[in-house]
Amino acid sequence: MKLLLLEDDLELCNEIEKELVDNGFVVDTCNDGEMGMYYALHDDFSYDLAIVDRMLPIIDGLTIIKAMREKGINIPVIIITGMSALDDRIDGLDGGADDYLVKPFYIDELLARIRALIRRPAEIKALDTLSYADLCFDKGNRTVSASEKSLVLTAKEAELLSVFMSKPETLFARERLILKVWGGNSEVEIGNVDNYISFLRKRLRELDSCCEIKTVYGAGFMLENKNA
Fold first, then answer.
1. Same structural domain, 182 and 75
2. CB 217: neighbour CB atoms within 10 A?
3. Do residues 177 and 77 both lie within one domain?
4. pLDDT in tens, 36-65
5. Do 12 and 106 share a domain, yes or no?
6. What is the dihedral sign for C-alpha 153, 155, 160, 166?
7. What average pLDDT score do residues 151-177 get?
8. What pairs with residue 143 in β-bridges?
């Protein structure tokens, strides 16, 4: 899962980021509200959860959360803040946050709250199934099927296929794929994208799928139905 962490205290930000990464999350971090607003609202960044310091420089965290909700971005949001008054908590939750954690806090408690927010009921998990042409992809168990065949993808293969199947027949530049799959702070090289595209193409051939990942030279890749 990919998380957005907005925190202006560099030491605390680094500490939280390390713990999140150690627990298997992909994390993008920002230390001011202006850049945080960009990451939170930009379509190229798809996060599963956001952790937002309320008192950010330039643009405060609550303004960012309200802007996310106005744009229809409904991912879970946890406010982390030193503002502990009841009215502050009410303002944060009414402003669109799902949880409110007062500093100082234990990292283990933050992790527990993250787990609680990403634990969704079965009817919502149904949205984790994507379909296009003869492909059916279950994001939860990373299983893709077609032509009565199925196989399990690696984590990165699954994230990449999810991007393509969420918007089939849409052109994705390599740089955009890196942002969506590896995150904005990643140092992954462009060539790695081509490697994973090659892996996915092999998977589609193994399934005898009518779908293919087409290369648009000089522009990027898109998922297409060969029989359309």
1. no
2. 5
3. no
4. 999 999 877 889 899 999 999 999 999 999
5. yes
6. positive
7. 91
8. 138, 152
